[in-house]
Fold each of these.
Amino acid sequence: MSDFLTGPQVTAAKDILDRLRDNMRRTIKGKNDVIDQVLVGVAAGGHLLIEDMPGVGKTTLAYSLARSMDCGFSRIQFTSDLLPSDVTGVSIYDESLKEFVFKKGPVFANVVLADEINRATPKTQSSLLEVMDRGKVTVDGQSHAVGAPFMVFATQNPVDYEGTFPLPESQMDRFLMRLHMGYPRPEDELAILRSPKNNYDEIALNPVVSRADILRLQSLCTQVFIEEGVLDYVLKIVSATRTEAEFKAGVSVRGGLALKHAVQACALLAGRDFVVPEDVQSMAGPVLAHRLALARQGSDALEERRMVAAALRRIVAAVPVPV
């Protein structure tokens, strides 16, 4: 396989993404920018965290994506009494076989919707660490691959709400991006109010791409060209977060790789076989902000997020753009 994409390959990748976008827009009104960010996550093969107020369409967004792909799908409702084995699976003794047999949990799917993930205890949240990082689950010393493609699409309400457990930094670092829905525009909300179907499980979408399409898309994404100057631009932004006094710690190496993969997917979404600095600028916030924390905590979680985002924008603006 060539190290560079051909015109037909770029066209094929763009066609897959366009089909997904058009299908999701049938149910998600007025959130085209959020849909595009989700498609970047799909192409990059990353996990997504949707964080926002209750009732703004986080679960509907995830469900629309899952219904648009002809892949295995499962939904896990995270609650305070959910156990790690309820997520990953458990070994059960089979009397007829006289041995323990592993019963797969709901995490064994191509698209896993982890709904309200921060309502589960830290122990249950940590059951996703290995599978999000390595695509496998280890139970009783035995590893079980979950298959490919594999994507965790988690939703959560802001952490300052009652009955929630903030995700640890190690878990946050495994999400490619953290996205926000926001309230719809009045005209879009009016269309939602007029619709007779207001529950996400009433969504009537047919799959428009196959599992093989997604695997091909993700493979092509890794071949998008990044010029050395743009790659150095990515590194300078990541490095600047590590010397910024406002942050408790900078972006990890995993975070730098995540930004690289995201900008490659962003270029592919735009129908290009190469990355431009504008791709880096547009992806820096969604990819890096959730990996950063203030040295001095803000008055509340939402205020701290705004301060982190503002500091990150200042860093991106200060780093010279390659010509």
Amino acid sequence: MNTKPQSYKDLVVWQKGIQTAKLIYNLTRNFPREEKFGIISQMRHAAISIPSNIAEGQARHTTKEFIQFISHAEGSAAELETQLILSIELTFAISPEVAEIFALLDELRRMMNGLRRKLATALIF
């Protein structure tokens, strides 16, 4: 039985990235209107970038490029976490409201780190 993902859509890490982006879109709907081109745009872009980079990396079909795109996705996750913290400090969101997103970002980080390590090991052999 072949358990290798045939598509980026088969990757749980990509699926979790999509879930994160949807949560960010829902969260930012309640942000102040004047932030449409500010933090709302930045947060949505960072959230979309996570699964997008995973998809692009897997679609490149080379391990080295996939690792590079996972790193980009990890950077976007860190960027999004920073923006979530700022949104709480600016009182655009409250901690309980973003707790699920923080937990999902933590899970995503662990999954991306594990995937990157697994791919790097494959490069060695």
Amino acid sequence: MKKIMPNIAAIFFTLFGAGVIVLLASYTFQALAHIFPGNFVAQGMGMILFDIAAIAWLGAFIYLCKSVSQYAIAFIGFALGLAGTLGMVAIEVMLGGQQMIAPPDWVNAALIYGFIGSAVAHVILFYAYKIAAPEISADISLGIETANITEEAMKQAEAALLAQRNALGGIIAPRLINDVKRNLGLPVSGDVIDLPAYDIPNPAQAIPVQIPARKPSFLDRLKAAAQVFTQTGQPPVARTYVPPVAPAPMPQPEPETPPRNDEQQPAPVPVEEPIIHPNGTHPSP
């Protein structure tokens, strides 16, 4: 018997608890019929604020809470749900058709305002419970600090810009003035002419360019003829003009060794240049 009785007691206690919950839920459901007569769905949804709320907050208090704030909120929610359930049962007992006592006048108002107050309280407690979670609290605290730092940075940046307002304006002003001048078609200093770009060959691979001799003009020819006529006293003979050709570069002679003082240098022999007459004959010696 000693081994069987604990199991029997556990079974009876479980049945007792289930019976109490069913009894309270049934009276709550009937009390909600006074608020929503003939609306079965509204009566069932209204039980979420009383019997179901008490069970849900109790489960959260035992298994889901992770912070002191959540434990406090869950306990408040459980107490509110249980109190609402007991209040609905009491109202249903007084309004359920009993004839022993007359229901007080405040019962109807308590039923209506109690339902509305329970709905508002459970909504607030539910969101407070979620916000009180450690990870969400940490994110909120971090966000608040970030907002404070950003606000302070904006204040410092505004102060720095106010201090540098004249300097920054002086930098931007010339550019704005140049833009206005360009719009008016006025010359602007510092403009860059946009020209096409060409490739520059490598100097090591560059091809030497030979520049031809300049062709004499008519005036040069006339001056040369007058000079010959004044020297010889005879009119110049017409000759076919052959344009001069640029001479090829002569090789540079190697530097000679300067003679010593004891050696005597030979005297240079004078060379007479032949004189050519305009008719092309050489004079006799």
Amino acid sequence: MYKRMKQIFERPALYLKSEAAFWNEEHISKQMLNAHLDPDFEGASRKADFIEKSARWIGELLPSNKYHKLLDLGCGPGLYTERFAKMGYQVTGIDFSERSIDYAKKAAKQRGLDISYHCQNYLNMDLDMIFDVSTMIYCDYGALSTEDRRSLRNYVYQHLNAGGRFLFDAFSMEFYHQFKEGTSWELCPEGGFWSGDEYMLFQGNYKYEGYVTLEQRILMTDDKITPYYLWNTCFTKESLIQEVEETGFKVIEVFGDVAGDEYHKDNTTMAILLEK
């Protein structure tokens, strides 16, 4: 027991993956969906006013009459895909949360929107379809390991037409500098986000070489201990450009965010527009 506890609470190896898929855990996935759908909460998704501004900007930057077939990676419950569909895109959304995809499918049907949703991992997607544009929003790119980011870029490249565009955002060095290391404990006798039953939560925030951060969460209930690892790789403008160019993408422009703000080094995010 001691060895198991020691192993769990040691500082994790870089990019160690969670054994438990929290996005499909019954209680946590419900809390995640509620967080996505809260228009005033910025946690699972950005706030509704930013999403609206962002979707409009993307529609102007990559108009649907030129980039008709759109693939949204990590689409969640459809906050962007629904807006894209209303703009005239032929939209496909991918997410590995069964609860989010189920919600998105039902919502699209209720609203008369023709959106194709797939519950699968975009790291091994095979849609048998080629797109004009792909989006990946809310800094999911940096949550992946170096190897997985390379796989993702290759898959997106393979699923784009010649001249197709790929737009995504990532955390910057300013985010890394602002990230605070530390550990804490939380006791939730009435349950909470991580479980409907009583639990204790260990929270560890760590920085790693290569400008990587980790938010480690260890959930302890009566019958089990479950660690979760939330990684973020942070980039300079130059390091992100160098990385994507290795795949063969051409860099069109770098922005401050996915709503078109101007890039500045003191922004905590950046967005990059690529062309195949």
